[in-house]
Amino acid sequence: MSEHIEVAAAEEAKRRPDYTRALQELLLQMADDDYILAYRGSEWLGLAPHIEEDVAFSSMAQDMMGHAAMLYGMLEELGAGKADDLAHLRRPEAFRNAILLERPNGSGEYADEPHYDWGFAIARCCLYGLFKEVRLEALTRSSYVPLTLEASKMLREHQYHIRYWRSWFTRLAGGTNEACSRLNAAVAQAWNDVGSLFPLGSEEEAIVRFGLSIGSDELARRWKMSAQSLFEASGLAWPGDWISPIGTGRDGQHTDDLAQVVAILSEVYRIDPAAGW
Fold this sequence. Notes:
mainly alpha, Ferritin-like, two-stranded antiparallel sheet
């Protein structure tokens, strides 16, 4: 069927609970993706290779957190709950982020013997960045007009992020043998979870039927084209097809790493959710 439904049909669909349910599921996936990766990005503060990267990663994490906050706000307007509660009071299994984004940056903890992998940070951010770009471009033609407007705004900001991550990806690929080797290892690690980006969860059929987004197969196809172009330009061998994971995060199946992230992010808010934060 067409990627988009007629405007009149879309307006009628918005009055239906199944339309709202599908829209909320899509928005949760988007919000949770940026929310969790923003946290992982913030963990590089003071640990990145150069002070410029400290500033860059902190700035991009702030942008992604802003995108997440905007999407949680849209969910609040749709009756899904208070935006702050959505971010801080849900249990890990209620999150819909891709598993790739919750993986730690490396061994150790931020405040206790952190041994983080810059190559993995760049590989993960770049692979996700290409996906986010594809998803936002598709959403500029969503049947839900408020989402099309916000997707266009986010896409403009995101262009700076993906440009930065592409630049580092190419830099590492064309650097020393050690840099290239570490990047290849990081890509192989990320490839185990890259398939968690594309599914749209239990509401996929409705999401596509209502013209809210293109389907997971088309998202994956467009992402693959973009990613292959990046690998070719960087001189890296294409890793091949990824394995479709049993649990993707879109269905609430996560690693223990997410539980730790959620606990840290919500620690202060849970002390007094009624306070004005």
